[in-house]
Amino acid sequence: MTMHTEVTTEDVRHEAVVCIRLKTTVAGSHLLDHLRAQPFVVSAWWIAADIDAVVLLSAPTMRELHRAVDDLSLLGGAEDAEAHMVLRKMSLATP
Description:
Elements: E1 14-22, H1 28-37, E2 41-46, E3 53-59, H2 62-74, E4 78-85
Antiparallel strand pairs: 1-3, 1-4, 2-3
């Protein structure tokens, strides 16, 4: 017996991992306030590297995802917001 699961457009999510470098004039608290107010932010981490933070975004459409990335620079104080689109989840189960 084969079971089929119907996937609707509501089930499809577009995701991106965004590496953020803040402007030197922007406090980290400003980015944090921005992220807390955004509907498409799933998770975020402060990073000790060439970047300041990594943010996971998930949106129902590519348009909304791109807008959320753009808003990190326009409203969140990012000097650089490099987005990496998630293609699919890896299965870590052993075969």
